[in-house]
Amino acid sequence: MDSQTAPLVGFGAGKVILLGEHSVVYGHPALAGPLSYGVTARGSKAKKSQLALPDTLSRAQRALLTGAFQRAARQCGSPGVKVSLESELPLSMGLGSSAALSVACVRVLLKAAGRKDVPAEVARLALEMEQEFHGTPSGVDHTTSAEERLILYKRAPGQSAGRARAVKSPRPLKVLVALVGERSPTKKTVGALRERQARWSARYTRLFQQIGTVATEGAKAVEAGDLEALGDAMNVNQGLLSALGLSSPPLEDMVYRLRGLGALGAKLTGAGGDGGAVIGLFLEPEQAVAKLLQLGVRCFSSQLAGPRAL
Ligand code: MEV
């Protein structure tokens, strides 16, 4: 199928950060993988580049999304395509919904422009959209979505884009994702941490370094197929995130519940704050998912990497 007849569809996976959120903003590595859920963008031929948005969105939300979309469209030569979106991801819960949306849109724009949607180019253009949404993101969210594989991501301070190395897992990596409380906007959580970091720089720098080390050790554990060691790294990371002031009672409560249900490790994922997503690493998460759903907890499971069971 050539680029003229290929369907104009693009998928952007949501993501979870297994290790290293926040410290990744300060130049330390983070281990992140794509969820099997995400955002699908569909394009149809039109006179100009256009994003179709539901009427339920506020004026400010529409302006933000349109501005970000047009920024990426211009980089693709403004192809004549109208793009609509379907999302399986909860918004603003730490699962990379804006990055998934950016990646899905960019894939359609590149296809409409007759260009290849290779991961590096998708990531470069999705960063343009993410900068509209988040200002100066580390880039781990949209890079994980564009790469569609488990990565160890690192961005040098002051640089806009980082580098990703694929982390191969000989074993399936399965997580339970639970959503709790009301999540604070990422910008607010990242900003408040930056103020504490500026005030007590030496102490916070030490904690960020510790998290970076734990993320590197976690990547090695994945490659060695040692899921117990990965789980322990996640537990230690949670303690360090808590020390940084990024956890809260609803998040802590879910972390302990997941450990009680047999998780090898459990931690908040994403920006944290008053609520958001908590992940637990399980060999088989389905029983724990069924139990929590019965209790009214919003949760699901996803495989992040490794060979899939038939
Ligand atoms: C958000 O998913 C991850 C953070 O580390 C922010 C970022 O990397 O830009 C909290």
UniProtKB/TrEMBL annotation:
* Pathway stated in the Swiss-Prot or TrEMBL entry: Isoprenoid biosynthesis; isopentenyl diphosphate biosynthesis via mevalonate pathway; isopentenyl diphosphate from (R)-mevalonate: step 1/3
* MF term (GO), any: mevalonate kinase activity
Q: Write out the entry's keywords from A to Z.
A: ATP-binding, Cytoplasm, Kinase, Lipid biosynthesis, Lipid metabolism, Magnesium, Nucleotide-binding, Transferase
Q: Which domain of life is it from?
A: Bacteria
The name on file for this protein is mevalonate kinase
The top of its lineage is: Bacteria, Pseudomonadati, Myxococcota, Myxococcia, Myxococcales
Keyword check for Isomerase:
no
Q: Which residues form the GHMP kinase C-terminal domain?
A: 220-290
| Location within or outside the cell | Cytoplasm
Q: Does the keyword ATP-binding apply?
A: yes
